[in-house]
Automatic annotation (TrEMBL):
Annotated family: Belongs to the V-ATPase E subunit family.
One MF annotation (Gene Ontology) recorded for this entry: proton-transporting ATPase activity, rotational mechanism
Name of the molecule in the record: V-type proton ATPase subunit E2
Organism, as annotated: Sesamum angustifolium
Alphabetized UniProt keyword annotations: Ion transport, Transport
Length: 229
């Protein structure tokens, strides 16, 4: 600065300009850094929001899948339970019909069951168990059954002993929960290692297991569609 007239010298003006430019540079740099940092914060928040949204969306999808699975399983259980109820009713009805078989038919049936059991066992010495009430009927068909077996199997007729331990009696209203047997026989090798259970109850169980229908995919689909209506 010129002390005489108070004006700035050229050098002082130059220094002032440099200072102003430097200040402007610092201001621009600070503003640029601020904008970059602000953008980073904004992007980080956006990313966090997107992640939270994706997480919550996945949670909703998982809950929907769980609910769908629970509804489908509940529907299938209902179908299976209804099916089981129907099968049980049919089986009970069939068991009652077995008790109404006439003596002539039951006699022929006993012979057939004995022959079938002998063909399965193919043992020379057999122990036969039946109901106590069927002993005389079994004795009346035993020789014919042995001859028929020997002819079919092309072997000598086996030795058959009727067990003194009998099968349970037929079902009774007096003892509805006790052991019972609707008829038939159980044959075993003398050592008891091979057993052929050929009672009417066992045959009935086999028939119902073989004929029991499976729940088809269509039934499952229909059940789920009904839940959504």
């Amino acid at each position: 600065m010129n002390d005489a007239d108070g004006s700035l010298t050229q050098g002082e003006v130059h220094i002032g300009q440099e200072a102003q430019e430097k200040a402007n540079e610092i201001s621009l740099s600070a503003e640029e850094e601020f904008n970059i940092e602000k953008l980073q914060i904004v992007e980080a928040e956006k990313k966090k929001i997107r992640q939270d949204y994706e997480r919550k969306t996945k949670q909703v999808e998982v809950r929907k899948k769980i609910e769908y699975s629970m509804q489908l399983n509940a529907s299938r259980i209902k179908v299976l339970q209804a099916q089981d109820d129907v099968v049980s009713e049919m089986k009970d009805a069939a068991s009652k019909e077995l008790l109404r078989v006439s003596d002539n038919i039951y006699k022929a049936l006993l012979k057939g069951l004995i022959v079938q059991s002998l063909l399965r066992l193919k043992e020379p010495s057999i122990l036969l168990r039946c109901r106590e009430m069927d002993v005389s009927l079994v004795n009346s068909v035993l020789e014919d059954a042995k001859r028929e077996y020997a002819k079919k199997a092309k072997v000598q007729a086996p030795s058959i002993t009727i067990d003194k331990v009998y099968l349970p009696p037929p079902p009774s209203s007096k003892q509805p929960l006790g052991p019972s047997c609707s008829g038939g026989v159980v044959l075993a090798s003398q050592d008891g290692k091979i057993v052929c259970e050929n009672t009417l109850d066992a045959r009935l169980d086999v028939v119902f297991r073989q004929k029991l229908p499976e729940v088809s995919p269509l039934e499952s689909y229909i059940s789920y569609e009904n839940l959504n209506q």
